[in-house]
Amino acid sequence: MGKKVNFIVLGALVLVSLIFGSEYQTIGNLEEINAGDTAWILVASAFVLLMTPGLAFFYGGMVNKKNVISTMLQSFVALGVISLVWVIVGFSLAFGDSLGGIIGNPLTYFAFKNVSIAPNPTFASTIPFVLFAMFQLKFAIITPALITGSFAERIRFRSYILFIVLFSLFIYAPLAHMTWHPNGLFRNWGVLDFAGGTVVHMSAGFAALAGSLYLGKRKHQIEEPANIPYVILGTGLLWFGWFGFNAGSALKADSNAVIAFANTNIASATSMIAWIFFDRFRGKKMTAIGASIGAIVGLVAITPAAGYVSIGQSIFIGFVAAIISNLAISFVNKTSYIDDTLDVFPSHGVGGIVGMLLTGVFANGVGLIHGETQTFFYHLLTLGLVAVFTFGGSWVLYKLVDMVLPIRVTETQELRGLDDSQHGEQA
Question: Is the whole model's pTM more than 0.90, yes or no?
């Protein structure tokens, strides 16, 4: 029965797209398209898409050998699932006409209706509107994929697919709307999130914390990475893709893109070195996994601030994020009730929090160091609201999914490994 339901749902999505989807329209002036800006955002979109396979390698290398395929596929399948959801209704919920500053009207761009090949000056005045939508899609894809590291090695695959659909619609879309839509609640407060520190990393972090608590601890915890070279490869792909993630968020090939590009590199480099030296300071070895996690934490922390701070400030952000996230991982791992398999919350959640708060401190002209308090205050308020909304909302979604499809594998399936029990494959 479950197999038939899955196929029927997919068929319904395709049919909806066929019936309601329109041909690419020209709403606006094609002469406003800037070739340089368009070329850069095309490339940046491809960079960001590459981050999700990169994440698959990053996570897949850190889990036990019997769960490599399952873990990697959880990231990879988001490319397909979220792409369909985004075209049908997700983009409209995130960027459609604002309903109270909280969420977009689902009918504004339903099935990509009114998504023109001409620019939409409300969002990006020099690139085709459909390109803006595709660029934003890549962010929507990687956000639920990030969450998977928290409940790796114990979630049913079908249940996971249902969860990421619901997360995309009811958690990600409202956060994207409130933060990036011109009439969004957080944006109207003056909250600054250049490339997704709040929308992507904090939301994924708190959803990961909720997931690790809801699913409970693994029955058989084997902390033996399957393939450390995979982790290094994944880190390299993520770092490479992050230039599109941050510099692409300027939505132009201009000085802001260059500033974001430079800050992205230096913050990650600083965080990586700070991480391994801090490990050594605490009596640990300088490990490849430590260097990789440190680099990712620096990328996470600089994301909200990338276009708003100087090189020196980006070094400071990377350094502080490395120390705080390192300590957070140690604290979480010492608890007896949190089993965040791949440390998603202390890396992405805490790293995102550090980046968001330091954006409020350093942001050009409006940060605390410039004598302004309003931006920092609204960042604090937004932090609290996002934490409650994302953690609480995700918990509800996990519960709802569990009622429809059991969300956790059986102990026997967990012992066999998810590669075999969920997919009938072995690495």
Answer: yes
